[in-house]
Amino acid sequence: MKKVFFTFAIMLFVSMSGQVASAIDWSLLPNLVQNPGGESGDTSSWSVTGPWYATSSQAQSTGTVNPHSGQYFFSSANSPSASAVMTQDVDISSFASIVDAGIAQFDVGFWYQTELFQSVYDTVVGKISFYDGTNSLLDSSETGELFSTVWTLEDYIDYVPVGTRSIELSFTGILHGGSYINAFVDDSYLKIGSDPIVPEPATLLLLGSGLLGLVGIRKKR
Q1: Is the N or C terminus of the chain more exposed, i.e. has fewer CB atoms within 10 Å?
Q2: pLDDT at position 9, please?
């Protein structure tokens, strides 16, 4: 019995020392991104540098791009340019208690599509940045350059850095062929959830010791 318990305890300790797969049902949580797919018909709620705009369709050399869902999507092909950036700051100060307890997770994602022009893809880069209450950068992560001729989902789940009070979501369209950046984004999202609380290893060891004690008492009887 003792051998089995310590094997069990070690397995639990190892599983909790690394990143745990999320047990949160993200479908039940609200999207914190405003105007996530341009459904307002414009880029309201986003700060835009370059030719990002909301459109219901976009002609390109390989055909017409239509929204992934709804009536609009974001296109960076409004005018000739080498790159285009759109960003949105999301205030998550209302989640401060779970963020600072280290149990808050985020789920961020978006659908993207790009053009293949003369054997070269234009690309899009998604980036998420975390800031504390003084607007100091805590951490950031980006996708690298993505390309696909069909709508493709990019999704990422991880823990929110302790101390985070706002999150910046950004998309960059990058030109690789021709004059117009044919990079498209739709249905972006950012959700915050609380990681289910699990016992700490010390608590598990204490519980295991108690169970062993009960086994010993039963044997004496």
Answers
A1: C
A2: 34
Residue 25 maps to a domain: no
Amino acid at 32: L
Look at residue 182 and tell me if it is in a domain.
yes
Number of domains in the chain: 1
Q: Hey, which residues does 54 pair with through a beta bridge?
A: 74
Span between the terminal Cα atoms of the chain, in Å: 17
pTM of this prediction? 0.80
57 Cβ partners below 8 Å, 6+ apart? 64, 65, 66
CATH number of residue 164's parent domain: 2.60.120.260
* 118 has a pLDDT exceeding 80: yes
**Closest-CA residue to 81 (of 175, 177, 183, 145):** 175
